[in-house]
Design goal:
Shape of chain A: globular
Distance between the termini of chain B: 40 Å
Oligomer: heterodimer
CATH topology of the largest domain in chain A: Aspartate Aminotransferase, domain 2
CATH superfamily of the largest domain in chain A: Type I PLP-dependent aspartate aminotransferase-like (Major domain)
Family (chain A): Belongs to the class-I pyridoxal-phosphate-dependent aminotransferase family.
Distance between the termini of chain A: 54 Å
CATH architecture of the largest domain in chain B: 2-Layer Sandwich
Enzyme class (chain A): transferase
CATH class of the largest domain in chain B: Alpha Beta
Structural class of chain A: alpha/beta
Helix content of chain A: 40-55%
Number of domains of chain B: 2
Number of strands of chain B: 4
Strand order of the largest sheet of chain B: 2-3-1-4
Strand order of the largest sheet of chain A: 2-8-7-6-5-3-4
Largest sheet of chain A: 7 strands, mixed
Radius of gyration of chain B: 20 Å
Shape of chain B: extended
Order of helices and strands of chain A: HHHEHHEHEHEHEHEEEHHHEHEEEH
Organism (chain A): Evansella vedderi
CATH superfamily of the largest domain in chain B: Lrp/AsnC effector binding domain/regulation of amino acid metabolism (RAM) domain
Number of strands of chain A: 12
Number of domains of chain A: 2
Protein name (chain A): Aminotransferase
GO molecular function (chain A): transaminase activity
Radius of gyration of chain A: 21 Å
Largest interface: A-B, 35 and 21 residues
Structural class of chain B: alpha+beta
Number of helices of chain A: 14
């Protein structure tokens, strides 16, 4: 039998849910860019720092001491205690014994949260543009993703009215993430309180993905469960990837009231057993002794943000000042190109990789995501090339 | 000294030739302010020269303690002293590390905020390494000359080119 025929049988057996999901729009750009040499990539969604050495060394030491077996399903208690203590800096209080679960990246946390609360047909409001996994994960659990678009008019924050607009009797939860990937938007206390009013009024749950919390440059991050009467309605998702430059370790956590935490732990223990033991020991070192180095990284991101956003404006791209994460999300409407055309032509003509805003959901079209988590030299060269590109297309 | 000035110093320490325009963008202040800040820092002899060597003792709240530690170790077959040396120099507290002839093997230069911070490093991180046999710690009382700044090569970028 040819592989075509073998695959034909296999495809017929795939679940409807997985067949309905579209592949990520980012994939195409990855395939394009990775075949080319001399590409300056502003398309990377992770820090450009290597994990601090003390963190790597702690993991090596744990291996040397033979800590290679499973841990408790929820993660080693020491780490949960450290996470709970750490979260107090954002004015949230969780019991490490039964309200914190260590997960395989924040990504697993999102999946756990959705699986724990969504029944088939439940609607989940997703504030867009956003990380590419939210809507597919909602679909996989049988939920219905409902887009709540944001726009440059409100600096990509989500307004209470736009949330209320999308609420139906089937709405179960809302998924938000600030500081935001891809827009860099952040929300202050008052703005979150307005959303909280709607959440309370319509008896919703909130999944708050705060993976970029530490990367807030102008104001202190406001955690959603710290908003009055939101703690009991919120599943907090976070992790070590962005703040401590630990993406490859795949380590995150969820924190939530006990019934939710317990439900998520139930799923986690069957599906995952526990997060990687050596990664947990690394994370323990990071969260206890990594604060200073993390703050140095934050300063460096802020400097590069300032440089890059100003430079984008100088070459004629409108760009709001992103308050967090490490992305600039300039408008490319002035070029007359769609975000996908812009990204593709920029890559082909000037070898600069960016991600079209359209792949991040509604509200993203007309913008491109540029990650400034790369060296100053690369950023300068990228600006030079983008300027050339814009000049060329303006004169057409 | 305000935080913008401290930030400026750290940038100059890394790259003494960084342009005023670039500094102005990174720090989010006007070019005039950058020039003014640099001038003021020059006059106060915080910036001593344009190899960008900075006397941190003249900057409030950034005093440090330096210690030189003589370390005796057991070399390992095949890798000699290199393996334990690497294990030690990767700690960011270690400013310099030399293999020495004479009565001890490695000379480690450590910087910390306080003496107890250094003592903690010696007792918790250094002495506990398997190959380390003994340590002798000498605190510096006054710094006359300092050229121990190690600029490590930037790690190669291993990241995939486009990711969510």
């Amino acid at each position: 039998m040819t592989s075509f025929h073998k695959n034909k049988i296999a495809i017929g057996k795939l679940s409807n849910a997985v067949q309905r999901i579209k592949p990520s729009g980012i994939r195409r750009f990855f395939d394009l860019a990775s075949t080319m040499d001399d590409v300056i990539s502003l398309g990377v969604g992770e820090p450009d720092f290597t994990t601090p050495w003390n963190v790597r060394e702690a993991s090596i030491a744990s291996l040397e001491r033979g800590f290679t077996s499973y841990t408790a399903n929820a993660g080693i208690l020491e780490l949960r205690i450290a996470v709970a203590n750490y979260l107090k800096k954002f004015k949230t209080d969780y019991n490490p014994e039964n309200e914190v679960v260590i997960t395989v990246g924040a990504s697993e946390g999102i999946d756990l949260a959705l699986r724990a609360i969504i029944n088939p047909g439940d609607e989940v409001l997703i504030v867009e543009p956003c990380f590419v996994s939210y809507a597919p994960l909602v679909s996989l659990v049988g939920g219905v993703p409902i887009s709540v678009p944001t726009s440059i008019d409100y600096e990509f924050k989500v307004s209470a009215a736009s949330v209320e607009d999308k609420i139906t009797p089937k709405t179960k939860a809302i998924l938000i993430s600030f500081p935001n990937n891809p827009t860099g938007a952040v929300m202050g206390k008052d703005e979150l309180e307005a959303v909280a009013q709607v959440v309370k009024k319509h008896d919703l749950l909130v999944i708050s993905d705060e993976i970029y919390a530490e990367l807030s440059y102008d104001n202190k991050h406001v955690s959603f469960p710290a908003i009055e009467s939101m703690w009991e309605r919120t599943i907090l998702i976070s992790g070590f990837s962005k703040a401590f430059a630990m993406t490859g370790w795949r380590l995150g956590y969820v924190a939530a009231p006990e019934p939710y935490a317990k439900a998520m732990l139930k799923i986690h223990q069957y599906a995952m057993m526990c997060a990687s033991t050596m990664a947990q020991y690394a994370a323990l070192e990071a969260i206890i002794n990594g604060q200073e180095e993390m703050e140095e990284m934050v300063v460096s991101y802020r400097q590069r943000r300032n440089f890059f956003v100003k430079s984008l404006r100088e070459i004629g791209l409108d760009c709001h000042l992103p308050g967090g994460a490490f992305y600039a999300f300039p408008s490319i409407v002035s070029t007359g190109l769609s975000s996908e055309e812009f990204a593709e032509q920029l890559l082909m003509e000037e070898k600069v990789a960016v991600v079209p805003g359209s792949v991040f959901g509604s509200g993203g079209e007309g913008h491109i995501r540029c990650s400034y988590a790369t060296s100053m030299e690369q950023l300068e060269e990228a600006i030079t090339r983008m300027n050339k590109f814009i000049q060329k297309h303006a004169s057409k | 000294m305000n935080s913008k000035e401290k930030e400026l110093l750290r940038l100059l320490e890394k790259d003494g030739r960084i342009s005023v325009e670039k500094l102005s963008k990174m720090l989010d202040v006007s070019t005039e302010e950058v020039v003014g800040m640099i001038h003021k820092l020059e006059k106060a002899k915080v910036i001593l020269g344009y190899s960008a060597i900075i006397d941190w003792n003249k900057v409030n709240e950034t005093e440090t303690v330096t210690a030189m530690i003589d370390v005796k170790v057991t070399p390992k077959r095949g890798v000699g002293f290199n393996e334990v040396a690497e294990r030690i120099y990767r700690f960011k507290e270690v400013k310099a590390l030399y293999l020495m002839s004479g009565t001890y093997d490695l000379s480690v230069v450590i910087e910390g905020k306080t003496m107890s911070e250094i003592a903690r490093f010696v007792s918790e991180k250094l002495s506990t390494l398997d190959s380390v046999l003994s340590t002798t710690t000498h605190f510096q009382l006054k710094k006359y000359k300092h050229d121990g700044v190690v600029f490590e090569d930037r790690d190669e970028d291993h990241r995939i080119v486009v990711s969510p």
